[in-house]
Design a protein that fits this description.
This protein is of the alpha/beta class. The protein contains 12 helices and 23 strands. The structure holds shikimate-3-phosphate and phosphoenolpyruvate. It catalyses: 3-phosphoshikimate + phosphoenolpyruvate = 5-O-(1-carboxyvinyl)-3-phosphoshikimate + phosphate.
């Protein structure tokens, strides 16, 4: 383990304009759809990070040519997916849930594994679904093997997707290539992260596939080809949130460029959350500006749709002057780490008052102090520690390098942010 990273304290209100790299969720969906298409596609403004590198390596292993130049990825043609192949999912939910539904189309064995924590992340639902749709699957969690025969029947499947929206998204990305197409019924507690499913539906449609999502908890995909698209990837709005939070906690001003006027990214919800907490938020001509005030209020908020934002919002809540309750996020226990346990523990380590509830976190105002903030190999835990460290001297993060999962330049970008502090 490298030396802990001393989180820089803001010398005053931060003032910066930040350009955020491409969205993980859009990049990794576009790569799957490009691989499933028989004609070449390009991605511009793509994310280049550990999660997208793992996705690209997965397609290389299956015989799909992809080349990266700067933030442009060119995906060449393929004559189907070929095994035997070994795929490393790292800790990427998008690789472990999006690649197997496509890899069942391969003509040989495909073995999947990942980081130690990846072996604990929920996978059973999607592997059972693939079995029910005609695939041969050995195992119920990472590591597992698909025994491909070049195609699967598809048809109708009923799943419980309450542990992750990625079960639905993964199946939807590939369903058109199944002989009978695909119908998914969800039965169980509500599906989290619905905007991410909307993102999938929108992108699958953009690739020319007919998707019917009229009926709640049901998605129907007609069998057919997946078209080639030249994707323009939006900035990652979830990765923008620590930078915007920096304005809110220091009473400064941060502008993020390239903010889309319409998007399926759940990170867009940060505008409303920061406004509720007392910041001034304006979106003008694609530039989102957050101005912090001298007051940061707590929030009571259902985060089920936007669970990915929880570490940032929890860090803000720990610095707020009134209590917060973050609800609807029991599924975060299956993320990169158990995020509810991790946030409660680390906020407590720096003197805060945070407890887990059945489906979220309760955070009350407290005077914070320095301490070693553990990241648990979770990029968003690391950036949450950095937010608190802006205004609490003596916070260090044990593994800032873990931000490479989706934002390899985080430490340098954070230093630049502070370079403009008054
Ligand atoms: O499909 C996606 O790109 C994602 C879906 C969400 O997963 P869950 O539904 O498992 O929370 C989100 O948290 C994750 O960061 C990215
Ligand atoms: C939950 C997350 O990632 P993953 O795609 O690995 O599920 C996340 O980035 O917050």
């Amino acid at each position: 383990m490298p030396q802990p990273w001393s989180a820089p304290v803001a010398p005053g209100p931060v003032s910066a304009t930040v350009t955020i790299p491409g969205s993980k969720s859009l990049t990794n969906r576009a790569l799957v759809l490009a691989a499933l298409s028989t004609r070449p596609s390009t991605l511009t403004g793509a994310l280049i990070s550990r999660d997208s590198d793992l996705m690209i390596a997965a397609w290389h292993a299956l015989g799909v040519p992809m080349t990266v130049e700067g933030t442009t990825i060119t995906v060449g043609t393929n004559d189907g997916f070929h095994g035997p192949a070994e795929i490393d999912c790292g800790l990427a939910g998008t690789v472990m849930r999006f690649v197997p539904p496509a890899a069942v189309l391969a003509d040989g064995q495909v073995r999947f594994d990942g980081d130690p924590r990846a072996r604990e992340r929920p996978m059973g639902t999607i592997l059972e679904a693939l079995r029910a749709l005609g695939a041969v699957v050995e195992g119920d969690a990472l590591p597992f093997t698909l025994v491909g025969t070049g195609g699967i029947a598809g048809g109708t499947v009923t799943i419980d997707a309450s542990a992750s929206s990625q079960f639905v998204s993964g199946l939807l990305l590939s369903g058109a290539r199944y002989d009978k197409g695909l119908t998914i019924h969800h039965v169980g507690k509500p599906v989290p992260s619905m905007p991410h499913i909307d993102m999938t539906v929108e992108m699958v449609r953009a690739a020319g596939v007919a998707v019917d999502d009229e009926e709640p908890n049901t998605w129907r995909i007609e069998p057919g080809p997946v078209g080639a698209v030249d994707w323009v990837i939006e900035p990652d709005l979830s990765n923008a949130t620590p930078f915007l939070a920096a304005a809110a906690v220091t009473g400064g001003e941060v502008t993020v460029t390239g903010w889309p006027s319409k998007t399926t990214q759940p990170g867009d919800a940060i505008r409303d959350i920061l406004a509720q907490m007392g910041a001034e938020v304006t979106l003008v001509d694609g530039s989102l500006t957050v101005r912090g005030s001298d007051k940061l209020s707590g929030v009571d908020i259902d985060m089920r749709d936007v669970g990915e934002l929880t570490p940032t919002v929890a860090a803000l809540a720990a610095l707020a002057d009134s209590p917060s309750v973050l609800r609807g996020i029991a599924h975060l226990r299956g993320h990169e780490t158990d995020r509810l346990a991790a946030l409660a523990a680390e906020i407590t380590t720096v003197g805060g008052d945070a407890t887990e509830t059945e489906d979220g976190l309760a955070i009350r105002p407290a005077k914070l102090h320095g301490g070693l903030w553990r990241a648990y190999a979770d990029h968003r835990m690391a950036t949450a520690g950095a937010i608190i460290g802006l205004v609490v001297p003596g916070v260090s993060v044990d593994d800032i390098a873990t931000t490479a999962k989706t934002l390899p330049d985080f430490p340098a970008m954070w230093a630049d942010l502070l370079g403009g502090a008054r």
